[in-house]
Q: What sequence folds into this?
């Protein structure tokens, strides 16, 4: 699914007071920041993995993104700074439980791709990142913790999917790959073929029922989704060439144009052990999909083998 990403989404729920504005400092690259707390303890080092909560706001204090809304913090490995916008100059100034504000110049973030700049970040404005450091780990410790968490989730994944199906009284079909689906609205129109361009409306949910994405504005609003700049319309893509997750490429080829369905997609056919944005690692996903339309390309003709001719042997009757 297409996402609107402004860069690293980084938290601390407060608004800058006049005094805080006067306390702003600047990094060597000139990025304004303020550290609200100065906790004792070792500062973040290069290669450390940090767990942080983040709220992203406009200069007018409108929330653009929040890890609290998403439901979990993010993890970042600290590397040498490569650009003004990567924030790697800020992290070594912080210890565990510190909170800070970084005012990232929108002009720098959108430099070179002004066409994607939303109107609520005009020239001269800032993208304000309020962050709180929840945990600092060595790379080895972070890898070990992540692997243990993934193994635990993977062990529970099948049982959680089965519970979801039972709780929602779904009668599903299962493909050899493990995709589960149920068609909720049928159609007599043809199915798409690989290479055809399809238009699809969808709502994506975690197995818990939390909606993480939708192409339908009413659903997005009811679900509290924050999708600034999103155009609510069916997404369009050629099917069967890997532009979407495997579960979609497979599942949509099973639908007739105009049909609606529920896909229950195991992590192996979705975002695997990595996860993506609000989707945790090893997550089974549930999609309500509608195959709105199909733009067909010219496909090579399928040559059917002629049926073998049947030879009827006549038996000459003889009169006794």
A:
């Amino acid at each position: 699914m297409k996402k609107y990403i402004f860069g690293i989404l980084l938290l601390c729920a407060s608004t800058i007071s006049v005094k805080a504005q006067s306390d702003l400092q600047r990094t060597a690259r000139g990025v304004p920041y303020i550290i609200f707390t100065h906790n004792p303890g070792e500062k973040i080092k290069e290669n450390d993995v940090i767990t942080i909560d983040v709220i992203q706001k406009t200069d007018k204090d409108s929330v653009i993104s929040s890890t609290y809304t998403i439901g979990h913090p993010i993890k970042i490995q600290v590397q040498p700074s490569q650009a003004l916008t990567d924030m790697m100059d800020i992290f070594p100034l912080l210890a565990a439980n510190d909170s800070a504000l970084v005012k990232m110049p929108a002009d720098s973030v959108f430099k070179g791709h002004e066409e994607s700049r939303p109107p609520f970040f005009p020239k001269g404005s800032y993208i304000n990142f309020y962050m709180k450091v929840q945990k600092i780990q060595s790379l080895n410790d972070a890898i070990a913790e992540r692997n243990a968490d993934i193994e635990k989730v993977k062990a529970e994944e099948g049982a959680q999917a089965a519970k979801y199906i039972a709780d929602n009284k779904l009668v599903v079909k299962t493909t050899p790959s493990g995709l589960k689906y149920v068609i909720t609205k049928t159609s007599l129109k043809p199915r798409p073929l690989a290479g055809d361009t399809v238009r699809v409306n969808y709502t994506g949910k975690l197995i818990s029922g939390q909606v993480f994405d939708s192409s339908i504005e009413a659903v997005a609003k009811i679900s509290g989704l924050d999708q600034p700049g999103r155009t609510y319309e069916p997404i369009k893509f050629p099917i069967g060439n890997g532009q979407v997750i495997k579960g979609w490429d497979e599942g949509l080829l099973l639908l007739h144009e105009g049909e609606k369905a529920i896909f229950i997609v195991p992590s192996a056919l979705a975002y695997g052990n990595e996860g993506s944005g609000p989707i945790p690692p090893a997550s089974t996903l549930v999609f309500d999909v509608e195959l709105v339309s199909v733009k067909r390309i010219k496909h090579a003709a399928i040559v059917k083998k002629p049926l073998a001719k049947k030879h009827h042997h006549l038996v000459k009757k003889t009169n006794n």
Notes: Confidence is low (pLDDT under 50) at residues 1-19, 310-320. Residues 199 and 236 are 4 Å apart (CA to CA). Helices lie at 18-22, 67-70, 106-109, 139-167, 217-222, 246-252.
